[in-house]
Specification:
The chain is α/β, with parallel strands linked by helices and 258 residues long. 36% of the residues lie in helices and 21% in strands. It has ten helices and ten strands. A seven-stranded mixed sheet has the order 3-2-1-4-7-6-8, with helices on both faces. A three-stranded mixed sheet has the order 5-10-9. β1, α1 and β2 form a beta-alpha-beta unit.
Length: 258
């Protein structure tokens, strides 16, 4: 049984489904064990599991939790008249991610977390101060990865700015979608979404705001120990993002270090 902790006045948003619920459980466990206070946890399903199934899988979480079906996010954006975003969300998992983050960021500042991130020390000192105004920032990657169609449409050559990763994001702002005319951007690239479309959109938004909040010194994104059997040493490690090239190490480090 995990001990109770004081609540943290910020929301952590995640998405899960049948194919990666086990990773989500471990990512959530790492927050519960390492953060000194507990955020409100909001989980959306990707449609492959029912909300009550997901909530049962995360019943160990000692703080406030809300689990909702993807259809609720569709309904929210339908009311906002955002058909391009809905089409993107129905076609691609990262479209769901974009829609989910924008939904909740319009209500309050949110931290988005991919399920392949583990925390090993307290992350709260590294959180930006909440603001009701527009704010967007993310983590540093080891290599730039962007969707050329988004770069061409925006005219923002992100390769010249930074190596941006959207696995961990801070987003806030009521009118982000309309201010940046994302409906036209998403509609312009439909249906040719790729693995980096959503990341490139957030990198573009962040370039007008906070940019990279968490360097690789804080959120490790690297492949230096990709063949090591022993666990990653935790000295000076706050968190690690286990991108696809080192996904297998997620299980190793969770087993040894959580």
């Amino acid at each position: 049984v995990l001990p109770p902790k004081k609540p943290l006045d910020i929301m952590v948003i995640m998405m899960t489904g049948r194919n990666f619920i086990d990773m989500t459980r471990l990512a959530v466990l790492s927050i519960a064990k390492s953060w000194s206070a507990l955020p409100k946890l909001i989980i959306n399903t990707d449609g492959s599991m029912q909300a009550n199934e997901v909530k049962k899988q995360l019943s160990f979480w000692p703080g406030e939790i809300v689990v909702e079906d993807w259809q609720n996010t569709i309904a929210y954006h339908q009311q906002k008249n955002r058909p391009a975003l809905i089409k993107y969300g129905n076609a691609h998992p990262f479209g769901k991610k974009l829609a989910l983050i924008l939904r909740y960021a319009e209500q309050a500042p949110v931290i988005w977390l991919d399920s392949d991130v583990l925390f090993f020390n307290d992350f709260i000192p590294y959180l930006p101060k909440p603001t009701a105004a527009f704010a967007c920032g993310g983590a540093e990657d080891f290599t730039p990865a962007y969707h050329e169609a988004v770069i061409k449409y925006t005219g923002n050559n992100l390769y010249d700015l930074y190596k941006f990763n959207a696995g961990l994001l801070y987003v806030s702002g009521r009118d982000i979608y309309e201010t940046f005319n994302l409906e036209k951007l998403i509609d312009a690239i439909h249906p040719d979404y790729d693995f980096c479309t959503e990341q490139t959109i957030f990198a573009h938004l962040a370039s007008k705001s906070l940019g990279i909040i968490w360097s690789k010194d804080i959120v490790k994104t690297f492949s230096a120990d990709s063949q090591e059997i022993k666990a990653m040493p935790l000295k000076n490690v706050v968190a690690r993002h286990y991108t696809s090239n080192v996904r297998h190490l997620f299980w190793r480090d969770a087993f040894f270090n959580l």
